[in-house]
């Protein structure tokens, strides 16, 4: 792992533009995975560096290596690969990893929804959302934010209105307000802001 960290620093000093993919999140998942050898940890460390242009092919190579060393079936590794592909704008690769995973959890499903929505595929995001038997605040926030970011503000507000009360937290309110601000509906954004039960610096 330290060797790969050193290579990252070297590449950065040469002026290469690197895209950091869920650095702390990925490292925590790999360390927590069962029976991961130092080689498997090194694999995850390398996955942290995926540039949209130069590093897509490297990401695929790391995926192939994860299959070779037998960690691709781990839910944490699989989730990281789903996230990696979507952040590299390869939503087909993200779907393929997701569909082939033997086990998935809420984090995996949320990563798939986020990946689809950030790549403009709200149809697939909605399909994944509807199939989930259990949803968290993150799930609802990702879907609302996805609709808002893709300009489907009516669908975003409809989903916000029908979200369970216990799922309507600070993040959910904020992404809905941000959606209105993005399209210039400042009056509606202000009205919703005034209705918020609590606020923080991000809301303001």
TrEMBL record:
PROSITE patterns, per database record: PPR
UniProt xrefs under NCBIfam families: PPR
Entry superkingdom: Eukaryota
InterPro entries xrefs: PPR_At4g14850-like_plant (IPR046960), PPR_rpt (IPR002885), TPR-like_helical_dom_sf (IPR011990)
Species of origin: Nelumbo nucifera (Sacred lotus)
PPR repeat positions: 105-135, 169-203
A GO term for molecular function: RNA binding
Pfam families: PPR, PPR_2
Listed name of the protein: Pentatricopeptide repeat-containing protein
GO biological process: RNA modification
Presence of the UniProt keyword Transferase in the record: no
Keywords, alphabetical: Repeat
